[in-house]
Amino acid sequence: MIDVVLVALLLYYVYKLVKGTVAINIFIGIVVIYFIYLTVEALKMVLLTKILGGFISVGFIALIIVFQQEVRKFLLMIGSTNFASRRKFLSQLKFLKIEQGTSTDIDAIISACNKMSSTKTGALIVLERNNNLDFIANTGDEMNIRVTQPIIESIFFKNSPLHDGAIIIQDNIVKATRVILPVNNEKNIPQRFGLRHRAAVGVTERTDAIAIAVSEETGQISCFRNGEFLPFEDSIELAEILKNDLE
Question: Which chain regions cross the lipid bilayer (predicted)?
Answer without folding.
Answer: 20-40, 47-67
